[in-house]
Structures are given as C-alpha cells and as structure tokens.
Fold YheC/YheD family protein.
Amino acid sequence: MNVFYCPSDKSWYSDEVLSFGNSGKPVQRRETGNHEMIPFSLSLKGNNAGPLVGILTGEDKHGNLAGNGPLFMRLQKELLHQGGVSIVFTANHLQENGVNGFLYLPAEDKWMPVSCPFPHLIYNRAPFRKHENTQSFHKAITNIRKMNIPFFNPGFIEKKELYELISSSEDLAPYLPATLTNPTASQLESLLQQYKRVYLKPSRGAKGKGIYVAEWREDHAIALTSHTVQSLYPSFQLFWKETESQFKYKDYIAQEAISPALIHGSRYDFRILVHYADHSYKVTGIGLRASKSQQITTHIPNGGKILPYTLIQTKQHDQFIEDIAAKLGYLLSESYGFFGEFSIDAGISDTGDYYIYEVNSKPMSFDEEEIESKRIQQLCALFFKETGFRSIQKE
C-alpha cells in the first residue's frame, strides 16, 4: 500500500483510509495531481501502514547527524525492498506529536528532511556515550517508554559493569579472565605478581583505545606498553607514583593477560555478531582478528588483520560461541532491557581455555561483506517481527 510524503507541507498522504506510525493517527487523503509527492510502498497491519523504524543517533559539534551512515543507508534500502521505511533522528528531534529527522532516498542517493509520526520501533545507534549522557537523550528515552514504543539497544555498557554482570553468572563467570575494577595500588601489585602480565583498560573505552599492558619483570621492574610506546619503571612504587592519576581516577580496570593461542605467530580473537531471532539469540557471523606488529589488541585500526574463521573452525569452537551468544543475550536483556543485537570479543588461550574479553552493545560494521549483509537481513527481520508487520519482498 502506498503512502506519500509531501516535502513542501511536511505531511503524509494516502489514496485510502490508513493510519501510519505508532500512534495510529489517520493519514490525510492524497490530493490528485500533486506531482511533488514521494511514494513509499509499505506493508499493512490492519489499516496501519509500516513499519516505520526510527534510528536514534547523535549530532556532531556542527549539528549534523553523526553515526554509522553506511549502515543507516543499507538498512533503508533493505527496508524499502521489504515494505518498510526508516527515519534517522536525534533526541533533539523528538517532538510532542512526532519526529523530525532525515529519510534516505536510495534512488537519488540523498537525505531528505522529513516530519513523521512516532515510529513503530526505535533502534538505538547513538554513536558515543556523551550522546546518551545528555538531558535531551534521557528525556527522549523517558517519553519513548511512556508511549510503549519498542526500543533497542538500551545503551552502552561500561566494562566494569559488564564484568560484574558476567561474574554473577554461574555459566559465564568461568570464561572471564581474573579482573579487578578500580584496583588499589596493593591490589594491582598483587595481580601483577600473580599473573606477571596485566591489561589496563578504560571502563568507557572502545576500539582498543587507551589500553596498556603492565608487565612484572624478574627484577621487579614494571614495563608499561601501549600500542605505540613502552615505558620502564624500576619498581612498582615508582610505576604507581607516575601513573596513579591516570589509572586510579579514570575508571580503569585491571585484567589478567591471557597467554593466547597463536596463528602464524600472532594472537587471534573471535569477533562474534549476535542477533535475536525466533525467540532466542543466534550467531549471525564470526570473524577472526589477528594482531600484527603489536600483541596488545587485534583491532583493525591498531594494526590487526582479518582472517577467515574457517582457518581454525572446529565443532568445539562453534559450540562455545553459540553457547555464550545465547546466554549473554538473555543476561544482557534481563539486566538492561531488550538487546536485539550485540557483538562479542572472545579468545582462546595457548592451553585451549576459552575467554570472553568484551561485549559491544553498538557493533561497528564488519569488514566481512558476507557477515555485514546477513546483519542487514537479520536487523530488518527483527524490525518486522517486533512491530508485527509482514515483509513484502519486492523484485
């Protein structure tokens, strides 16, 4: 069923008696002969057209939309193909009677400013924690919940909260490296003495930024290594004196550095993409990331390289990955609210033990096109399922 948008009066129209959006407000009847109107072929649930999917993002310092533009455009293309439509907006765009935002037109490869009724569902893609910490964001989320609009994912998760949550799970806790949140000097010294190598990670960090490795040497000196620099301290006391302000007051966590399994002489990690589908959490794709010159992280911006999972795939690996995906999905949703999508960084030690390193509530795009394409399909399927609409595949 077609609905039409008129840019000049910022209104939606239809040839028939229809409603559009979450509120079920009737759409105006179309004026014949108005060639300015842009048609959208949508699915119907009763006489309600949709789904209208809201993608909540943030603004940059110039007031422009921020976030993963390529993801938003690919989602719009697939939604239109299946009989849906999306609008990208920020917390400041949420109005009393609807949403002002931007709608991508694939045929013209341009973004069009639009006014819409409230979406049937909202997908949280605010790109930075600072966006979620604003008063406007909190107000928007409060209003969204009052209107009972389905909303996922709830927000960023700090590392210390994540480790505390996983530690509380009898099934998942064994997969955590030894971890301390905001350790005191004596706690950190003991951790270093016990494990010799310890990761220091910012609780609010992302993409491998701000990570250090502290190493306890045989002469009791401490070597501190980042992606680019190494510093050496003759003793733990001197190390702490020089770095206390950096680590103690910036919400860092300390974590046992696992001796990793190697491939071609480099450490590797699993990058696991997970989506909610058919009443459970299922693995959408698995990528492999190996380190290059530095052995601190396997993140691509820090010199990591992409390898196919099939290089090391086993039934045991598959079972571990499927198991933690399902259990983490339910644990996250029970604790924070519905997660429709997340990713996991996991690994394996040189002794064959599995570990969970990170859980990302706002997965970045995967470099593997096969995984990213499947991601688009899974998200759109979730949009339709959660809103009660049926996809109408178009040729």
